[in-house]
From TrEMBL:
This is Lipopolysaccharide assembly protein B. InterPro entries: CellSynth/LPSAsmb/PSIAsmb (IPR051012), LapB (IPR030865), Rubredoxin_2 (IPR041166), TPR-like_helical_dom_sf (IPR011990), TPR_rpt (IPR019734). It comes from Kangiella sediminilitoris. The keyword Calcium does not apply. Coiled coil: none annotated.
Amino acid sequence: MEQWLLYGVLALLPLAAYSGYLVGRKQLKGKQGGSLSSNYIKGLNYLLNEQPDKAVDTFIDLLKVDTDTVETHLALGNLFRKRGEVDRAIRLHQNLIARPQLSSSDRNTALYQLGLDYNAVGMYDRSEKLFKELLEDPAHKNDSLVQLLNIHQLTRDWDDAAKIAETLQSSMGVEQSKPISHFYCELADQKRREGDNKAALSNLKKALNINPDSVRASLLQGRIHLRQNQYKQAIKAYQRILQQDIAFLPEALPDISQAYSEVKDYSGYKQFLDKSLEMGAGVSVLVELSKIIQKEKGDKAAAILIGEFLQERPSLKGLQRLIALHIEHAQDSAKPSLQLLDDIVEKLISRKPRYECENCGFHTKAIYWQCPSCKEWSSVKPIKGIEGE
């Protein structure tokens, strides 16, 4: 507690000194320095006596709002918000905005800061109203657009998020195609859960028009077609993943297998897997192909396929598949050792994350289209290498 108070004192001293300078200058101009000077000293005494709350109140009283002290108010409000004293920041900014002599520019700056205060305590309806008002001010338009975009994402208002992101892209020239496509995917997923597949597919079409490399849109589109027994359309949607980002293909493999099976195109599925491996697909595709080879040519041919792959691209998942192929044909004396090795590999695989954020390094076993840590869209990717694909 004492350490916290010390930090508070140190944080407020520069602001107190600046406030004193402004007050002193006013005193010289107006020759009314007695009471102000004594209040300023009183504020410093509060700081030195580790009473920051009383010191802050004293300095607020000292700051007469005019063109010379607006910046000090804003700095003090920002300090309150960073310290978690958002109620004080709100009170200060509201008091500032209420002053009739405040210039339009300073009022808008105070409004923006008040919007940040409301955001900090989750009062998004109030902050949204302020930021929308500030869209008319060129000096605050872009910052307000960024804040509105954050609000709509937090409140999962994906339709408005897409509109704001499009405005932000045209206003600032900042590329927003990836997040916009995800907003339409979010809308599509909502409609899918509500049973409105037509609206879902319409939103996915928008997502792909904005970002043709949207793996998420292809996955959702394929899933919807599959549930509607539209197997050829599902296959077509899933095939796009090869060009979009082949690392995500394992997410679709069970559905792809089902779609080819429903249309009885078994050779087509095998060709798809072969092509995928040629294009750099990971070990999950290899394991799937080995199951087909096992049925057609036996365990030995499947084991040879896995072994050749592992020589170039070592993989725990591939090793586990190879062990499984050998257990059935191993001598009784060797089976316990192979089973133990299989158990060890299984534990290693189960403990390892499957995905990693390329932006912040966040690890996870589940797929996230927006990183929970850094909030970046499309940054979480499947892990490659011996512990991944």
